[in-house]
């Protein structure tokens, strides 16, 4: 298919757009001192080299070129919390679970995932949570922590700050080797918590407000799990989930060897692995599930913060186990964590041209009219909310079945291994005589095309293997030319952005990356710093399991935990890389990235299996930038209309609603981002039912409930409205109800600092009837 050529007008408009973006970044850069603004290691550029395997299935540990770095962050003096005595005379593990809110801003911030200009937060559908699980051996000698977080991905800055605060409170109990932070990869959470320039630009600046909210929530969930530890048992189970996935790059998958593909019945990983946690009396404590699916049932037209399909599965499971509690409350914690989801979509109706209805499941994901911008995959529901419920509901139901039948107990020691690695300079042993190198980070042309789950905004298509003179010239003039070395290293990727060679105002992509693994008995949890495709994940799991088997651990189950510790985009197989679809163009360290990770994780597996973790080199510590580009959206004073107060009702509820209808009230609003600073209220809304017997109002829903929606409508000069909706479910009891609004407004008197003040309001009562 011929590529659509740019008209003179299109070219001129695009040139203006890019120039405006470049000028904006340049001006922002001038606001910050870029020298001496990071604390990091002296040897961040040291190459990473491993010796070739000496025997099949064995891998040497890191060579002497990796050295210990200095502390990445300077925290307050350590005030270690005393460790409570642990009951030791039992078989199993000490288990602690905890859940805490980490939502951050729900307005005036970009949603992180689609990188779509204008897709900013304008309210909330569900809260975002950090769910922590701590496991310790009976004598307390070893422990590990796994944390699943309802965010797009874990940023390096987020992880470093969380570890710093844990060290301040617990000393060396929770460290970079035994704490995994994993993002669920919802594309409907706030951005703004990154330090590398590509992600800062995508987030339209760094939001310390959201960053602090997230860090506090993650740390709080770990503190709760630490306090709640009790003797218990862990059971593992596995099973396939049907009808919720498609491979969104099937033509890339076909580049993998036919003999390899013949070993699998599907081009997606259908297997779900669950851990069931109970105390010694059999009382349920928690669940961790790993399953490969993109949480993109909520598409790029959405503006409500939410946890998408995997979060909906958590919501259903926790509501089932925490009966009588509001969402986000109760002792039971259920995490639905990400896995090798790189090329896996929940939009199971597949890609179709929205203007003709024809399939566009081709190598370029392009339509005859409109190109890639009209090739979109749809979910099974009548809208994105319904699709989220359908996909999340199936995942929940399968996890519930596996949980109920879980009988294989996990036993054995706990172990953890971690290294920081300079991924831009890893020597990869292809065999005993030949090596290859990873590359400095770079993004290819097809990165800008987006995917069938969310297309790019400019005229790019997937599968592009040749650069365009227009874009190359524009890039060279604005950012400088990529070196011949980086172009040669990334072939056949045509480089759009040579991010590994861009350093202003800070490096555009990370060089130093975490590789980490923890084991719980016979289960190995591989913490990957990005999005592995289906076949990449299969190869990694197979290699890790083979490495453990080589050293006597034949029955190891390896599970991939995605979006951990630092974000590095995608990881395809070498063969998929040749196709240069979106995932390959986003494999930032070049065609041998997967081979490098396999080599590194095999080294961790060997160290755990041979009890030589202490001999692993720590590696060069990552930087922690002190000064970042602030949010481009200013803080302004909130104003109520003349004669009105914040929270006044502008549109009241109707007197009566039937089950299945939507109750709606509109209030005089204030910017919801204020509530991420002043957390006087823990919810933006409640739905309350009048109990005649006690003459009290009982809360039946909050803003974490799937049935409620909070919309914020931004006006001019600080004016805004807030709309609260209750989608009345069929399970609602007839009776008298009301809705309440909780907010914060920013006030600033002349020559005085701004203050954020709480307010609340209540709707008129209304009746819900069944018919």
TrEMBL record:
Assigned keywords, A-Z: Hydrolase, Lipid metabolism, Membrane, Metal-binding, Sphingolipid metabolism, Transmembrane, Transmembrane helix, Zinc
Location of the active site: 345
GO BP annotations listed: ceramide biosynthetic process; ceramide catabolic process; long-chain fatty acid biosynthetic process; sphingosine biosynthetic process
Broad class of enzyme this protein falls into: hydrolase
Record's catalysed reaction(s): an N-acylsphing-4-enine + H2O = sphing-4-enine + a fatty acid
Cofactor: Zn(2+)
Domain (Neutral/alkaline non-lysosomal ceramidase N-terminal) ranges: 93-599
Domain Neutral/alkaline non-lysosomal ceramidase C-terminal: 601-768
Region (Disordered): 42-83
Ranges of compositional bias, category Polar residues: 47-81
Details of cofactor binding: Binds 1 zinc ion per subunit.
GO (cellular component) term, any one: cytoplasm
InterPro entries: Ceramidase_alk, NCDase_C_sf, NEUT/ALK_ceramidase_C, NEUT/ALK_ceramidase_N
GO molecular function, one term: metal ion binding
Pfam families the record matches: Ceramidase_alk (PF04734), Ceramidse_alk_C (PF17048)
Source organism superkingdom: Eukaryota
Family per similarity comment: Belongs to the neutral ceramidase family.
Name of protein: Neutral ceramidase
Source organism (scientific name): Lynx pardinus
Lineage, uppermost ranks: Eukaryota, Metazoa, Chordata, Craniata, Vertebrata
